[in-house]
Amino acid sequence: MTPVELSRTVLHAVRCAVDEGQLSVVVPERVVVSEPGAGGCGEYATNVALQLARAAGKPPRTVAEILRPRLIAADGIEDVVVTGPGFLNFRLGQEVDPLQDLVREIRAQGQRYGHGDALAGQVVTLRVPYEVRAEVVADAVVRIVATQGGRATVEHRGGRATARHHGGRAAVEHVEHGELVELRPVPAPEDPAPLGPDAARWALLHPAPHDRPRITADHLVQREGNPLFRVRYAHARVRSLGRGAARLGFAAEPGPLHTAGADTAVTPALQAPASQAPALQAPALQAAALHTPLSDYPRILTAAATHRAPDRLARHLVTVADAVLPFLTCVLPIGEEKPSAAHRARLALAEAAGTVLAGGLSLLGIDAPEHL
Asked: Rounded to two decimals, what is the model's pTM?
């Protein structure tokens, strides 16, 4: 439960007490929650009972005791303790955060994240023509199939009968020792070698096999319109943030993406819509946009292996890059801000995305630069 959610929960408890006739006060527009002061306990506290006491004609502790049972019954609150003249102190329940669990999983597995056994024991023979795009696609397929426990080998035409195919798609024959897959994507219109190894491979792997690849200098331009640049730039930015964090004396650690201090610093916006509270909402919203691309990566990798389709992996890396780039602006402290647990958690999420980008690029045979 965030401070915003807790503030709304306290307001709801006040409103219920008023509706049931236990308090006769005007429900305030907002309630401020903050870290407990001296003598307090738990994660957060509020002085709302002291604020309402005079209008209610009751001692602050009595007001607090009226609100306490309603607050304890709320989801996400484990206990409420009244301290001092009437401060309400909250101990929050341990909530399951799927994004934190995902970050921990990626950190534990590293570039093996997404690897599985969907093709365990399967042997695939890839038959390709003597053509540069077919060779590059087959090379990537061999690596991708291996991530799912399978084994792929490459042979060129001439040994056995050629499988039938249509529209650049792979055709499959079952043979004695596994499957024979003919890979014949639409050939490159010209030699991609002048683009250099990384841009050349991307130009051949990113399009679907039935699409003709573009062999142009656009793949070398360092701007947002170039998908390869966005993917490699996102990875390089993540690595740069890691170096910046080290200089500031902190490292990545999965956890909540906000802190009490950061959220309560913008308490005037507690009741405002998201569009009016960007400082509070931006990190959470940008982080949420990363969850699906990162959690989908194993499924995409399995599909790329099963369908011998490295283009699916290439396009998904663009999706990951486009999701992580806006988030990177809130990872490091800004101005006089001190590194906090939230910054460590944001760095861990950014590094998880960087791990996925590096792993995917490696499977495509493309370098993931530390600097760009």
From this structure: 0.70
